[in-house]
Structures are given as C-alpha cells and as structure tokens.
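quick q for whoever's on today - can somebody do inverse folding on this one?? i tried earlier but teh output was garbage lol. tokens:
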C-alpha cells in the first residue's frame, strides 16, 4: 500500500521580534524549515533563498539518488546566498539553518545544517533525528557537559555550522518511512522554550494542524523570545487510487509583510509570498513598532564564520562578524567595537568602530569590570545607548587637595644615642586589667588619622577608587 504525507505548518513572530526570519515550506514530497539570521532584513532573505532552492525537490516525483539530490540542492542554495551577498553588500553576514525531509515512497531523506531540529514520533517514543551543530552540543559530545547542564548554558545558542555562502557540507541520511510515523520539524524558537517531554505529549494530538497550533502556543506561553516555526506531518496509508496532490504551504518570512523579497527571484514560493502580502483593504494606522531586538543567539553566526576561516582559510569569517557590536576598552578609553568579542591568538574578530570621551578608570569599579570584559550590544543603536548609560556610572570628582601648613618644630635637647626615646606607659594590675585610662601623646601622630568620636573611620579621597580626577 502506498504511503503519503498529511501535513500542517504554523509560524509566529514570537513576543519579542518585529519581523519573521524563519521560512517554511510543506508539500506532498518536501518538508523544509530554515531559520535565518544576520543583519537587518538579511535573515529572512537567506532563509527564503534556501527554501526556494529546495522547492524543486517537491515537484520531481521520482528521485533516483535521494541523498545526492538533497546534497546538491543545499549546495546550490549555499551558492545562491554567496551570489546574493556579492551583489548586495547590505546582505553581508546573513545566513540560515536548514532542516528538510524529502519523502519518497518508503524512504525519507533528511538533510540538516545548524540548530533547527527534526523529530520522529513512532508509537510512544519520540526521537530527535538531527544533531545540533552548536558549541554546547559539542561540549556534551566530548563529555565536558551533561545534557542537563547544557539546557541552561549561557552559550547554548552559539552554532558551529550554518549556510553562510562559504564552504559547508550538510548532514544527509536516509530513513525508513512507516505508516503511523509523525514527523516534527521546528526552529529553536520551540525547542529552546518547550521541553522534549511536553513536545512528546503535545504530539499525541491527532489533528496535525491542531497539534502545530498547540506547539506554537506553548512556545508563546514560555515567553516567545524568538520566531517559532513548526511542521507536523503524518505518514499515512493512501486509500485505493488516492494520491497526495495537496498544494504546498508557505509560511514565515514568505508571508510576513515586513520581510524583504529575494533579489531577482521568481519561484513559485516567492510569487506566493508576494500574493499573500497584498492587503485586501488598506491596513489601519498602527503605532510604530518597538525597535527590533536582535537575537541573543545570533552571535552563533560568528562562530560558524570563524570556523570556516580557520578551516577553509577564507575571509568569510571576518565579514560575518561585521553585523555585531559591543562596548569595551580601547587602551584607557571606552569605545564601541564592530565585530565579536573573540580572539584566537593574534587573530581578532573586531575593530574599533567609534571612540568615546569616557575613560575606563572614571567608571564605578563594578561597571568598569563589565566594560573591560565587553558589553554585548544588539546593534549600533543599542551600543550608543549603552555608552549613554555609562555616563550615569561615573565616579564623583575628587575634591581639591588642600595643602597642609608646614609647622616649624620646637628645638629640643639632644638625646644621648645610648638611651632610647621615652614611650608613654600604662599602669596595670597583675591581672592585666587597666587601672587608669592611658592618654597617648600626640607626638609624631597626624590628627587626620585619629579615630572619629563615633568610631567610624574617615574615608580619604582615592582617585580611580572612590572618585575621579577632573579633566
């Protein structure tokens, strides 16, 4: 009996983003999801380029070399990204993850790059069928972290591979397709927020669209810090004479009104995207959206570019870093840097973008330490705002130093060198308890160091510690 797919998709901006950089495609033979990243309007372009490049796999009913076809399609997509960047410098630093399934009778081909995920639910068992290309997963694989420790690791979103236009080799594999299998493809907007156990329970919902909607709702309930996109697909037995000729479904950046079009593209996916963005009626006036917050995990692109630079000897790594900013120390001054705060030996992946009038030593000690470590900014504007806030963290100006008047000592008789100078004494009983309060002489003692009447020490101005010098 022939096997066919029943599928549903859902994509959402999340509760923080102002645009959707995820792109998703689901058709009778192809399921593909891509999570774009890198610069204004560039992430959605990268993800759409990749999905568009794979679109043809859904139209070809008979693929002889399934793994070869998937690999070739991904390499072609990667070349298209490189070409788009070459033609438009505004797209520099863009890239995307990709996880895709190509259904072919009793086989399912899987291709994967990045940290989007693929799962299969067979019976009651949920299995992850992709391997995260992340720094934290590398630590787990090498035994340096446990899976539980990896869940809350501060660098869990740093990815080691992505489609950047530079050389990359995707993971490709073949799986057996069985009736009753349920596949889930998702971006990290779901897997970073919703636990595997909750995902497994939710995948029990029979209807694929209801299941997809519920998964996205769970991600939003968890804070929705990122775009979240899912595909839920069931492998089912076809009835006699039944074929799966359902129309493909596009979502994410393809239908986001704020998303940029692929330069020069005219695929079915891009045409559908343009049609979906035509409003039936003029949209009502809406207040300005909040400034776009960049993904905390976008620094992942940098690592992917860095590895490419080190391994392949290409200059792409440095180019990728130029979409990032941080505030740090340049000698004695605070500066805005362009790039990522990373250095391998003598190789730096950042440059000074703008100097400021702030001196590091003039900052409060705690803030000074943060600047020395580097304060990550979402973008150039955020970096400027960080510098503005640092002006509120300056030490107070040290008070002027008042010279102490010189005192001419009174001449005294010359002591014999064989007799030590007299010292103040205190008479005490044999028990060691004092019988009278001793009155120390003031000879040779500075009045400024005497204890205050309350016993609280008087703090002296200390430049660069509790005050700053003027000018």
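ok took a stab at it. sequence:
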């Amino acid at each position: 009996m022939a096997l066919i797919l029943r599928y549903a998709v859902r994509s959402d901006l999340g509760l923080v983003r102002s645009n959707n950089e995820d792109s998703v495609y689901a058709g009778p033979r192809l399921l593909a999801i891509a999570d774009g990243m890198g610069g204004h309007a560039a992430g959605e372009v990268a993800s759409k380029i990749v999905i568009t490049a794979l679109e043809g796999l859904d139209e070809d009913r008979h693929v002889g070399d399934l793994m070869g076809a998937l690999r070739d399609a991904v390499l072609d997509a990667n070349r298209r990204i490189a070409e788009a960047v070459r033609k438009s410098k505004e797209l520099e630093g863009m890239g995307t993850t990709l996880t895709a399934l190509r259904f072919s009778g009793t086989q399912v081909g899987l291709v994967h790059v990045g940290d989007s995920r693929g799962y299969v639910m067979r019976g009651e068992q949920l299995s992850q069928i992709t391997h995260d290309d992340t720094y934290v997963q590398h630590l787990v694989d090498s035994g340096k972290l446990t899976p539980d420790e990896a869940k809350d690791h501060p660098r869990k979103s740093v990815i080691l591979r992505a489609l950047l236009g530079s050389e990359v080799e995707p993971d490709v594999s073949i799986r057996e397709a069985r009736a009753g299998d349920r596949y889930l493809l998702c971006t990290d907007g779901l897997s970073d927020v919703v636990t595997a156990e909750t995902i497994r329970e939710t995948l029990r919902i029979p209807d694929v669209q209801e299941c997809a909607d519920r998964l996205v709702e769970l991600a939003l309930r968890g804070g929705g810090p990122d775009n979240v996109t899912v595909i839920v697909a069931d492998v089912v037995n076809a009835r006699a004479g039944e074929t799966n000729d359902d129309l493909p479904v596009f979502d994410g950046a393809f239908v986001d009104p704020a998303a940029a079009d692929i330069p020069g593209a005219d695929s079915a996916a891009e045409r559908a995207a343009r049609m979906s963005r035509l409003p039936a009626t003029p949209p009502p006036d809406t207040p300005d959206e909040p400034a776009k917050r960049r993904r905390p995990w976008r620094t992942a692109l940098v690592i992917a570019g860095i590895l490419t630079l080190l391994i392949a000897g290409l200059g792409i790594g440095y180019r990728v870093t130029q979409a990032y900013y941080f505030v740090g120390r340049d000698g004695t001054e605070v500066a805005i840097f362009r790039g990522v705060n990373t250095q391998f030996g003598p190789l730096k992946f950042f440059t000074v973008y703008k100097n400021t009038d702030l001196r590091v030593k003039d900052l409060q000690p705690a803030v000074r330490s943060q600047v020395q470590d580097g304060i990550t900014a979402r973008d150039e504007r955020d970096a400027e705002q960080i510098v503005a806030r640092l002006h509120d963290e300056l030490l107070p100006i040290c008070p002027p130093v008042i010279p102490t008047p010189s005192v001419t000592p009174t001449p005294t008789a010359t002591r014999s060198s064989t007799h030590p100078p007299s010292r103040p004494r205190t008479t005490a009983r044999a028990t060691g308890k004092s019988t009278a309060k001793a009155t120390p002489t003031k000879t040779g003692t500075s009045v400024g160091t005497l204890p205050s009447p309350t016993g609280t020490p008087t703090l002296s101005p200390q430049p660069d510690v509790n005050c700053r010098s003027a000018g």
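fwiw The CA atoms of residues 80 and 373 lie 38 Å apart. also The chain has two domains: 3-276, 324-393. so keep that in mind when u check it
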